[in-house]
Amino acid sequence: MLAAAFVAGWMAAGWVVGLDRIVRSRFEGHKFRVPSRVYTAPTIVYPGLDWKLIDLEGTLRRLGYRRARATKQLPAGQYVWGSSRARIHLRAFDHPSRSEPERDVVLRLSGPIIEEIRQLPSGREMGALLLQPEQIGAYYGLNREQRELIRVDAMPRHLIDAVLAVEDQRFESHPGIDLRRIAGAFLANLRAGGIRQGASTLTQQLVKNFFLTPERTFRRKAQEAVMALLVEARYGKREILQAYLNEIYLGQRGATAVHGVGEAARVYFGKAGRDLTLAESALLAAIIQSPNGLSPYRDPERAKRRRDLVLELMRKQERIDDAEFREATQVPIDLAVVTPDPGDARYFLDLLRRQLSSVYDSEVLSSEGLRVYSTLDYRAQQLAAKSLREGIEKLEKNFPALAHEDPRQSLQGCLIALRPQTGEILALVGGRDYGVSQFDRCTQARRQSGSVFKPFVYIAALEPRGSGPEITLASFIDDGPLEIDTPSGPWKPNNFDKEFHGRVPVRQALERSFNVATARLAHEIGIPRVIDVARRLGITSSLPDVPSLALGTAEVSPMEIARAYATIANGGVRPELQSIEDLVDGDGTTLERRRLRFERVLDAGTAYLVTSMLEGVAERGTAAGVRNTGLRGPIAAKTGTSDDEHDLWFVGFTPELVAVVWLGFDTPRSLGIPSSVGAMPIWRDFVKEMTGGRIRGAFLKPADIQQVDVDPATGALALAGCPDRRPEFFLEGTLPDAICPGGAVVGRRGDESPRIRRRFFDWLRKQL
């Protein structure tokens, strides 16, 4: 018997030591898997802004703010909205570079325009204010658990009291198991003739969630009890309570499990755990028993009865007084608006994951609780997804041949929007339906660029090299038949309309996207110069040295095209594309911070000249339809349709925005329509929604650009008496030699002395 007892004791001791090792490894190691969260850029609100255009009230609701009646005392997280005045009590928020304190502000409104912003109670006028970033997604592990860790000392005392009152009122005195509770539960279940009441302490619940399965067996209950005793023996009550409150399951948000009171406070009330009221804390404690069955979204009356029971227990246990009890029970259930994860941003989230994976593996992203502050504009992303989806659906309705029964073979597209001055990606939609295809056509696809490549040819001819540029905006190009010998035989380009147009002005050649004129110009200056320009602007894909390159036969990504046009819009300064502003770890340490990187790759004057040409494309050329719905303000744009109409492009920019739209089938086949019918309406709808139809700003003219009148028929300078004229832009020192009227040529090369010619043109420029 002694030997048997010794062996049994030895085995029991080994079992306990094994359990202790498990407890220590979890509590002293990585307790929780916290997915990394991705946030948008903060929303900026300022006088002169159209609050309807940015959906200000909708943004407040998504951030968990609740509308209140007019009141002198407006709590943080609430707002009052009137016809001419809005008051918002903004919560404080932490941000690695743009943190904001709590502010109570008043906005004076004039229709949809914010006229003035003042801070209360001082009445100080504010030039702008920031709204906290919105979460757009997270990188989950296999269990899709979401939690926001919170320390006990950051939790309100009434939250802790509410949980202890209903889950374990003797938590602070028992050693891990509560014998009185076990005895009471045994008698209650005996009287009921079945299991009606549990006896697990808060520590036992934590052990079950951390280490064990939910099965109900005597062996598992014994393990639970022993491990609870071990946890209590090794760790303090404060640490155990903190682990429990961060681990407890509190419901679902779509397919994501909500764990911990910090995350639950965000989901149910749109606020941080430290800001919970007594009534809100009691409601969270109430639903621990059955988070889905007692969900206040599903059955608010049942949840309220359970909440009031928790408040009654708190009063009986003297955790609150009678006045606090009466006040809290009178508070109605007031929940935050349910905001499901915005699926429209999933292509952007995948882009971030690919970029982050070069530094952090997937395990880190799904467990270390990193906070990724992105450049994404929530509203721009929603509008981009809506414009692309509805635009494609409209095309399929108007052109039934484009529709396909199999969604995997349907017409696809992408839309990407940038801020040209910084390279920030504001919106990225890589396809019409992420659920059908996760392939990102903005960054991963390479397709023939068609005519959106042509401006690179004109840049190569316009920029000054050596003795000067090959052409000016007053020059003419021959759009007659062209044949170029190549290793594979003669190449004979044709225009889209199958006609030749003879001698045409440079502007008209680009505005009407003449293939032959552009190919001839590229042949004259040399394809290597065109490739050099494209490389400098940001094209990294393979560019073959063949004559057809001038017409966009090279395969490039929409992201590359967006960067190239952003460089033009930015006055020849190429930005590095940015998707991340800041990366912060779980302790608040900034791991990475965005550094704006720029490189001047094109002189500002040449960039302005090609911008002016692209404005002409939008006013009179192939993109003139962009104005059909009343879009006003400066727009520079280019249509692009590849060979056999396999790819439709539309690229356009304003002083503050660059957007690229691409349409096509993943397995290339003809769409049978031009880009002005397919891609342009999508771009137009997106920009109109973004700007409200009025585009701000202007394309600023550099100091080395001169504007003079020229004769449209000859390109000569138009002085007094010239029968026709139009204004044109020139780089300094590149004015035409010829003068209208009479077509007299002054200073023809070789005819007169260079000194006399220079003096004459110096005098002429002063007169102009």
Give a brief outline of the structure.
With 768 residues, the protein is α+β, with helices and mostly antiparallel strands.
Q: What's the main sheet like?
A: 6 strands, mixed
The outline comes out as elongated
CATH superfamily of the domain at 142-329: Biosynthetic peptidoglycan transglycosylase-like
Q: Fraction of residues in helices?
A: 25-40%
Reading off the top of the CATH hierarchy, the class of the domain at 142-329 is best stated as: Mainly Alpha
Number of E-type strands = 34
Here the CATH topology of the domain at 142-329 equals Penicillin binding protein transpeptidase fold
Counting copies of identical and different chains, the oligomeric state is single chain
Residue fraction in strands: 15-25%
Straight-line distance between termini: 118 Å
Query: Would you identify the CATH architecture of the domain at 142-329?
Result: Orthogonal Bundle
Low-pLDDT parts are 743-759
Quote the average pLDDT. 88
Describe the 3D structure.
The structure is a single chain. This protein has 23 helices and 34 strands. Strand 7 and strand 8 form a beta hairpin. By secondary structure, it is α+β, with helices and mostly antiparallel strands.
